[in-house]
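hiii so um. not sure if this is the right channel but i have a protein structure encoded as tokens and i wanna go backwards to a sequence. like what aa goes where. can anyone help
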């Protein structure tokens, strides 16, 4: 309060007038009367503020990394639409919708302003912007409307009893009109030179206005008396006319009015309060807190990632709050807390173990040294910073056993008092059996064990289970016990079983074909079923009924569900929460419905979407527990501790998702729904498929997408488990395809949707044009067949090879792709003419070769065939191809070599190696050299490598050219030792994705091939 106002207050008593002559109520007076009522909530706020360093809610930022787009002007209202999408203006004069995984621009206009609210009344849509209004039966038929004033500013929209109320403000800001829309017409309710606003109180519309002595609320729909309040306020939320929350005129905090008594709940927020409603946004400079005014001001959200926000929208279906302000659009999830400041008050790095003691404390150990405990009072960091905590912490009675990286097991009585119970063990997991025996996964071979009662007695040695009993696994990762007292363990070598009564173990070693189970965790649920998490993300269970020491691979079964059929990421923890098996994968958490599983029903698997967790580092293995205090689920990544209100999350409604697709060919876009055939023209055989779907929780779904040719058994592209929605396919042949999508639904089930695709043929791909193109090689082939009758058996074989080589140059797939390119780009004559020129020159060389009736041609002609092949492939398939040629003059132009020797190998590298490299640049290197007794040629690329090239060659019915060459070389090498040698291998074997290929050709000098009498 200013000095002048303070003096006025002291002079005049309880009231004073401001500069506009309006009567004000001094806050000090309110406090003096109502102090006892405000203390409780205010102290609650302070205690909550003091707990800020402990935990905060998880916040998802919507930006280029999560949604593919940044928002720079997010300082406007946001609204959750009825279908779950979020409506907002990313910039002025624009309306956007945030769907599950994409942003759609709904429309863009001029002088529209910023989006405020959307309603539906009587089948008619209403879109309110601050500069324009739109109404219509659907979005395509919306009409712009101006009411109230020319150039009016619109604000304070409310839907009350199927009527939309809002305020129109004149351009000068001096006149106000209250407008009502009933679904068909606009009605001017009131006009005033002072502000007029509508508020909703228990489902009824009231007019809020100001007068000289305070604020009034007048009912708009009945004749109930007007309520007057002797102070000025900006309404935030009404429980009733006698119980509501407000901010004062100068934003000096949040107040609660209750039956004539006023109390101040919060001090002034650091940011302007622009968005009244049930959820109040408060910022203190360190972060943002969200209060639910319908629950007596209870704080329901807190984050330090956002320093401020002006607008919010609550999604009941996902229990999340969308927040906008300072150019950011974010989403706070009320069911997921994180603990980012466990160590030094700044970080939670290096998390390796979490356990809970019977008194309720959560112990969190770090590989960086030390540990902290978390309880209802806060976090407490241990002073023992030198201990680097390893995986496998275990509670033993009221004590905590921690493993360390520098060998040794430590038994803690509390955070400061401990006993070192072992000096040599480097353990990854501890387990206490039913008979109170501590088993510990020992470094190297075996499992160490000792009775719990003897742990602190250093005179009693530890015992070891290893190869002497039959356990031949190294680095055991996890241990559990079956109902018969047998111990099970798992490692990257397989699974082991130990029978303590017999002191005998049995090992099932990993074998890709016979026993495909190895990994880091296993678990026995409350129904006594053993579960095994594999390194490939697959979940197996024990179904055997006999002696485990006689187990075979047939005693294990795979849980079949798209989420758990393998994704090359290991399962790193298994845990039971009530009727769910919690499965932690490196970057995902799944919930297997054990109740339906044990009832013999198909597997149901729910999942916590990765976007909700927002992991920066992978989940850590064995870091999971159920809180005995509130039944929440705790888990950890390498740098964050999470507390998941899983019970609350499981009560959220689930919504089945049915996707649609749009296909973009670069020149057109085609949309389709499941089972509706989509037909594409022949020149649309390269395209992008984009999946679209919308759910009320507005969260992404896991899915597996596959494109399959109906005439082929193997898919063209088999998708993996992702939430991505964009797929690219290139240079597909004409025919019928099916794009299949397996959608993992939120209720744990999955649904398959299929989209039939048909790619048409060009007219010349059928008969006539093809006959003209192949006329010359066909005639030449007939001549060669006739001529073969005159030569001996060896000549016949070589002539057949010549015919195969000739057909190789004109194989239908190669010519078809060239003609496809011509048909798709007829308007671009230089492109088409270049390809025709290359083809024509190759035809000329081949024709000359066939007339000469010789298998050998000069190097200059072979090199020309090769150059033309490279040029054609670059024009059609490889626009980013980079060709490097070194020392081309090393081989004389007249040096003879078999027709196609270089051309076929280069074409193989282009077709099967480089065409399947998805990321440019594609590099082809050809080097020539001369040695005293031979010439050499090296052909290398950075493609997919030898093995995958052969796979692609087989799928596409290519690869016969190399076989033909090899037959020619076998014949030549019978006459001349090592006349021509070819070696082919991976260029960079350590590169799993693109190892590349290098082929070496050596041509011995001084050989007279005419001696073979061809």
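sure thing!! here u go:
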């Amino acid at each position: 309060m200013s000095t002048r106002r303070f003096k006025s207050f002291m002079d005049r008593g309880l009231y004073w007038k401001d500069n506009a002559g309006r009567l004000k109520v001094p806050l000090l007076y309110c406090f003096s009367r109502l102090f006892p009522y405000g203390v409780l909530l205010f102290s609650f706020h302070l205690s909550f503020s003091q707990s800020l360093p402990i935990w905060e809610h998880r916040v998802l930022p919507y930006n280029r990394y999560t949604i593919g787009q940044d928002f720079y002007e997010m300082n406007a209202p946001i609204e959750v639409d009825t279908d779950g999408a979020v409506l907002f203006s990313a910039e002025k004069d624009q309306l956007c919708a945030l769907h599950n995984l994409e942003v759609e621009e709904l429309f863009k206009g001029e002088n529209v302003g910023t989006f405020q609210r959307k309603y539906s009344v009587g089948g008619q849509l209403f879109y309110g912007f601050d500069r324009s209004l739109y109404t219509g039966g659907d979005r395509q038929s919306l009409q712009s409307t101006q009411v109230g004033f020319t150039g009016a500013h619109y604000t304070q929209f409310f839907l009350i009893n199927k009527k939309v109320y809002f305020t129109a403000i004149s351009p000068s800001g001096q006149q106000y009109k209250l407008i009502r829309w009933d679904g068909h017409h606009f009605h001017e309710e009131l006009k005033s030179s002072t502000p007029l606003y509508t508020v909703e109180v228990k489902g009824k519309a009231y007019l809020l206005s100001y007068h000289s002595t305070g604020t009034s609320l007048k009912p708009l729909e009945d004749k109930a008396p007007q309520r007057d309040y002797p102070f000025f306020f900006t309404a935030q939320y009404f429980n009733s006319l006698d119980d509501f929350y407000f901010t004062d005129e100068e934003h000096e905090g949040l107040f609660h009015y209750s039956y004539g008594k006023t109390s101040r709940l919060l001090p002034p927020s650091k940011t302007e309060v622009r968005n009244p409603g049930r959820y109040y946004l408060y910022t203190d400079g360190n972060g943002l807190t969200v209060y639910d005014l319908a629950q007596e001001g209870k704080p329901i959200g807190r984050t330090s990632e956002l320093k401020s926000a002006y607008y919010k929208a609550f999604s009941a279906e996902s229990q999340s709050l969308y927040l906008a302000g300072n150019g950011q659009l974010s989403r706070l999830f009320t069911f997921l807390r994180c603990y980012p400041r466990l160590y030094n008050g700044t970080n939670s790095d290096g998390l390796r173990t979490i356990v809970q003691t019977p008194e309720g404390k959560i112990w969190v150990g770090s590989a960086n040294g030390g540990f902290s405990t978390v309880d209802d009072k806060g976090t407490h960091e241990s002073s023992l910073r030198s201990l680097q905590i390893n995986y496998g912490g275990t509670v033993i009675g009221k004590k905590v056993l921690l493993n360390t990286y520098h060998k040794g097991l430590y038994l803690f009585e509390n955070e400061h008092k401990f006993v070192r119970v072992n000096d040599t063990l480097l353990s990854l997991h501890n387990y206490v059996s039913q008979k109170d025996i501590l088993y510990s996964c020992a470094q190297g071979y075996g499992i160490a064990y000792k009775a719990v009662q003897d742990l602190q007695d250093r005179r009693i040695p530890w015992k070891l289970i290893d190869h002497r009993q039959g356990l031949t696994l190294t680095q055991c990762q996890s241990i559990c016990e079956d109902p018969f007292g047998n111990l099970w363990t798992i490692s990257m070598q397989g699974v082991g079983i130990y029978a303590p009564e017999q002191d005998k173990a049995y090992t099932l070693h990993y074998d890709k074909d016979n026993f495909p189970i190895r990994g880091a965790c296993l678990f026995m649920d409350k129904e006594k079923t053993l579960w095994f998490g594999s390194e490939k993300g697959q979940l197996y269970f024990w179904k055997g009924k006999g002696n485990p020491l006689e187990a075979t691979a047939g005693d294990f079964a795979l849980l079949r569900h798209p989420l758990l059929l393998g994704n090359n990421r290991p399962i790193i923890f298994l845990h039971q929460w009530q009727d769910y098996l919690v499965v932690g994968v490196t970057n995902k958490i799944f919930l297997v419905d054990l109740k339906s599983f044990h009832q013999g029903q198909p597997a149901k698997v729910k999942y916590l979407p990765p976007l909700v967790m927002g992991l920066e580092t992978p989940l850590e293995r064995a870091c999971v527990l159920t809180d005995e205090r509130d039944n929440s689920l705790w888990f950890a990544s390498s740098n964050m501790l999470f507390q998941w209100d899983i019970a609350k999350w499981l009560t959220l409604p689930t919504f089945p998702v049915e996707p649609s697709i749009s296909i973009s060919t670069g020149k057109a876009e085609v949309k389709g729904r499941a089972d509706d055939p989509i037909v594409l023209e022949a020149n649309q055989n390269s395209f992008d498929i984009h999946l679209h779907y919308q759910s009320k929780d507005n969260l992404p779904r896991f899915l597996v997408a596959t494109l399959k040719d109906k005439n082929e058994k193997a898919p063209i592209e088999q998708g993996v488990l992702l939430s991505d929605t964009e797929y690219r396919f290139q240079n597909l042949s004409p025919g019928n395809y099916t794009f299949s999508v397996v959608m993992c639904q939120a209720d744990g089930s999955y649904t398959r949707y299929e989209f039939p695709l048909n790619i048409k043929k060009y007219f010349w791909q059928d008969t006539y044009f093809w006959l003209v193109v192949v006329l010359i090689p066909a005639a030449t082939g007939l001549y060669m067949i006739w001529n073969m009758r005159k030569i001996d058996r060896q000549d016949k074989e070589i002539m057949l090879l010549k015919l195969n080589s000739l057909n190789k140059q004109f194989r239908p797939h190669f010519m078809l792709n060239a003609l496809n390119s011509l048909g798709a780009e007829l308007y671009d004559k230089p492109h088409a003419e270049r390809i025709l020129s290359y083809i024509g020159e190759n035809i000329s060389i081949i024709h000359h070769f066939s007339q000469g009736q010789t298998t050998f041609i000069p190097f200059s002609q072979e090199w020309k065939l090769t150059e033309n092949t490279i040029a054609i492939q670059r024009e059609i398939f490889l626009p980013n191809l980079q060709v490097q040629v070194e020392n081309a003059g090393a081989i004389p132009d007249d040096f003879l070599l078999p027709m196609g020797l270089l051309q076929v190998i280069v074409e193989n590298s282009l077709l099967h190696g480089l065409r399947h490299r998805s990321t440019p640049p594609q590099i082809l290197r050809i080097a020539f050299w001369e040695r005293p007794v031979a010439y050499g040629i090296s052909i290398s690329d950075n493609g997919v490598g030898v093995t995958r090239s052969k796979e692609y060659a087989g799928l596409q019915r290519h690869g016969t050219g190399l076989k033909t060459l090899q037959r020619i070389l076998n014949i030549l090498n019978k006459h001349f030792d090592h006349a021509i040698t070819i070696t082919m291998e991976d260029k960079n074997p350590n590169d799993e994705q693109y190892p590349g290929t290098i082929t070496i050709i050596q041509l011995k000098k001084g050989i007279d091939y005419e001696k073979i009498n061809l």
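oh and The chain has 14 helices and 72 strands.
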